[in-house]
Structures are given as C-alpha cells and as structure tokens.
C-alpha cells in the first residue's frame, strides 16, 4: 500500500524549525542555523515540536536528559504493545544546514499524520522522538541523548557535562525547561524510587531514523532513498607531542626539539595509514587529523607542545584498529628519531553497527509500493540509530544531499526529495506497526 504524505505540511514544519537560530549570510543559496543545546533557539525548537505533536494528538514525554517523545496510540493499537518509533534530533553544528536532524524528526511526525489521514490502523503505538545533543560540541562528543537512553552513559554523568562556559547540561536543560516534562506539562519518566529518568529504547519494537545522506551516492545513482546496511564506527584520539620551546632566531637548527615539525610527520603518517587501508582492505576507511593546538603559538618561538585531534572511521572494526595502531607507532617513532615526548588517548570509541535486516526489508517494500527507487549503502557518519541498534532493531534511511554538502549553510535536499523519502519512511513504519 502506498502511503502519501503532505509535502507542503512537511516543508512548513522544516522551514519553521529553520527560523530558530537562523544565521543571516550574504550567500543567496545559504540556509544557516545555529541551534545548540541550552540556547533560546533550542528551547523554541523544542517548544514547537511539543506543540506540533499535541496538534497531532500525540502524548508527549520529556525525559531527564531532554529527549522528547510523542506517542500516538490509536484505538486499533494495544497500548501495552512495544511501540515503533522514528525520529532524529533538532540541534545543529554552528552555522549548519536546516535538514540535518529536523528532517528526521518532522518526517516521523508527518508519517504519523499520513497514517491517520489514510485510516491506517496499527496494532501497536507509533512514536516520534527528538534526541538531545546529537551533534556534540556543546556537551560531550555527540549522540548524547540516545547514549544515555540506551544505558551506555549514566544519567548523572551526562548531566554533569559542561559547556565552554562551565554550565552543566543539568543547569542548561533546567534553564530552558527541558529537564523533564514539568515545565511543558508533559510526562516525565521515573525510576522505581520516583526519580526522573530517561525514555527506554530497549522497550521499543523498532526504530527508524531518516536523515540527509551527507554524501553523493544517492545523487549519483538518481535514487530517492538510501537503505543503510551499516553505520560506520568512529573513534576520536588525542595525541600530544612535547618538544622544547625556544628562541626562533637564537636556536640553531641542530639544537631544536620542534614539536610542530614532529607533529607534521604524525599528520602525514595518519593520512598514509588510512590510504594504505583503503588500498589494501577497506575502501570506506578514513583517517583525519582535524585539529591542532600549538603552544606557545608565536611566530618567533620554536613550538614546544602540540595537541592533535584524530578522527578514524570505517564500517570494519579491524580497519579502524589498523589506523589507530599506525598512529601509535608514528608517535613511538617520533620519540626515537626526534627526541620528543608523546602521549596518546582514545576518549571516544563507537564500533561499526549493522542495521536490522527485517526493517531494511520493510523499507525496500515501502519504496516499491511508493514507486521510489531505493538502494543499499553504508553511512560514513554517526547517527542516533547506531546507539538504539544496541538495544532493539533499528534502521537508517537516507534522502539525497545536493553535492553531498552538509554541516554547512549550503546543505540542501530538494523538497520533493524530502517528501519522497518521508513517503518511504511512512510506509515502512506502517508495515512494521501492523505486523503480527
């Protein structure tokens, strides 16, 4: 059965959300927004989602880490049955695009409205979720709301995280009214002692997330929807190189222990290791040294200390380990050959995650019914679906991205493509929610 969606209604929701944190630029093709957890823009985006869920007769829950869940329980559904849930996030990177995150949230809501409009009678409740702080950068490394909800990070530890100004997540959520549901007259889940806790994805029958692809595979193939097979693993490493700061004019070249010169070799070694893995075993592997902190960072001083941030990703865990091992070996070589001291830490590590075959099949069936071409592909970016997949069946769908641009004001997915992907999502949700 084809399940048509209201493309104009979906567009209106995404455009309204884009106004919260809008950043004006001189580029006529730019659509920038900055919506970070705890800001006024973030509060307004959450408020509007709660309002739109209530307009669709969904019951709203806000948990202790700020995750928002709207649930539709029609008369046809067993209210005690495990729900089928879909969604994504509302926060953004600084000056990010308008689709990354919100498309998934409002496509989920539009899917529920489409089911109601078409008289679909699901056997189980259907939910719409917005996870807190998916992007990271304000509190933690990303995927925060889903990580806490799935039990991989303790609630108290998450609430104690601080932003650049020292404000905790607990304080930020309390200030905007989303430390539980009291401020917006929503349900707050509690534990056995009555203390606020989080929503529980382990109790869901299935989870779908629709997201913009952030790459060009769908665009090149002319396909409407991507059905993700595996979400890449991601690891963040922190390398430190200690040399000796000294006068740039009075220190002879042979008497220097230049931390930046040594670190430059480290950067190239990581790149070379990633290229070797791509050529030998896994074409999807990537390794990046994306940040450098130089001390004392003065033109007339030989650099004494470098901190480097390393990002390694692949759909194969062994490939990731090979690049990380090469980074460690590079630092050991630099100690021997350049006389520097080094340190290496790995504070963030998420393994590659396969998506549910059952849900992928339902998505392909929905695409066929809608007359939309769907292709299999992997995800090179992390998404909340990979956390939820640890505790229940999960599936990630992609809509095309123009030129593959994302985390950028020029991020764009045509409105017709948004609607087409949402139609597939709606069909998949309807199928799974009416399974015996």
The run of helices and strands is HEEHEEEHEHHHEHEEEHEEEHEEHEHEH
| Gyration radius, in Å | 23 Å
Number of helices: 12
Relative strand content: 15-25%
- Percent helix, as a range, is 25-40%
Count of β-strands? 17
Largest sheet: 9 strands, mixed
The shape is globular
Alpha-carbon distance between the two ends: 17 Å
Specify the structural class. Answer: alpha+beta
Mean pLDDT: 96
Q: Note poorly predicted spans.
A: none
Task: Compose a concise summary of this entry.
The protein is an alpha+beta fold and 436 residues long.
Write structural notes for this entry:
The chain has 436 residues and is of the alpha+beta class. The longest helix is centred in the middle third of the chain and has 22 residues, at 259-280. The strands form 4 sheets. Strands 3, 4, 5, 6, 7, 8, 15, 16 and 17 form a 9-stranded mixed sheet that branches. Helix 10 packs across helix 12 (415-433). The chain has helices at 7-18, 40-55, 102-117, 144-149, 155-159, 169-176, 217-221, 259-280, 317-338, 357-370, 384-388, 415-433; strands spanning 22-23, 32-33, 59-62, 68-72, 84-89, 126-131, 206-212, 225-231, 233-242, 246-247, 286-295, 301-302, 305-314, 341-350, 353-354, 374-379, 394-399. The chain has 12 helices and 17 strands.
């Amino acid at each position: 059965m084809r399940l048509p969606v209201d493309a104009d209604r979906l567009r209106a929701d995404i455009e309204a959300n884009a106004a919260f944190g809008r950043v004006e630029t001189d580029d006529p093709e730019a659509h920038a927004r900055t919506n970070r957890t705890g800001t006024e823009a973030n509060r307004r985006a959450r408020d509007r989602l709660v309002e739109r869920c209530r307009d669709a007769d969904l019951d709203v829950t806000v948990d202790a880490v700020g995750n928002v869940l709207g649930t539709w329980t029609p008369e046809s559904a067993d209210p005690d049955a495990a729900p089928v849930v879909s969604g994504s996030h509302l926060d953004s990177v600084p000056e990010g695009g308008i689709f990354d995150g919100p498309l998934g949230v409002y496509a989920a809501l539009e899917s529920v409205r489409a089911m109601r409009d078409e008289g679909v009678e699901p056997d189980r409740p259907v939910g719409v979720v917005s996870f807190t702080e998916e992007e990271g950068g304000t509190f933690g490394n990303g995927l925060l709301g889903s990580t806490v909800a799935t039990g991989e990070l303790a609630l108290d530890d998450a609430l104690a995280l601080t932003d650049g100004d020292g404000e905790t997540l607990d304080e930020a959520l309390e200030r905007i009214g989303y430390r539980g549901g009291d401020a917006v007259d929503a349900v707050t889940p509690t534990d056995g002692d009555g203390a606020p806790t989080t929503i529980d994805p382990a109790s869901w029958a299935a989870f779908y997330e629709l997201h913009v692809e952030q790459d060009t595979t769908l665009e090149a193939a002319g396909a409407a929807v991507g059905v993700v097979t595996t979400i890449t693993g991601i690891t963040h490493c922190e390398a430190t190189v200690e040399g000796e700061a000294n006068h740039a004019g009075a220190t002879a070249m042979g008497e220097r222990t230049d931390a930046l010169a040594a670190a430059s070799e480290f950067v190239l070694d990581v790149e070379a290791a990633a290229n070797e893995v791509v050529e030998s075993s896994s074409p999807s592997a990537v390794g990046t040294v994306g940040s450098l902190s130089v001390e004392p960072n003065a033109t007339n001083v030989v650099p004494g200390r470098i901190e480097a941030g390393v990002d390694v990703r692949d759909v194969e865990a062994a490939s990731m380990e090979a690049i990380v091992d090469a980074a460690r070996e590079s630092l050991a070589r630099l100690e021997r050959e350049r006389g520097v001291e080094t340190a290496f830490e790995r504070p963030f590590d998420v393994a590659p995650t396969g998506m549910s075959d059952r849900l992928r099949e339902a998505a392909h069936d929905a695409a066929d019914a809608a007359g939309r071409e769907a292709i299999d592909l992997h995800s090179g970016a992390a998404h909340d679906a990979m956390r939820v997949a640890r505790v229940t069946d999960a599936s990630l769908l992609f809509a095309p991205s123009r030129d593959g641009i994302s985390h950028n004001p020029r991020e764009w997915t045509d409105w017709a493509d948004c609607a087409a992907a949402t139609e597939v999502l709606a069909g998949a949700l309807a199928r799974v929610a009416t399974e015996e």
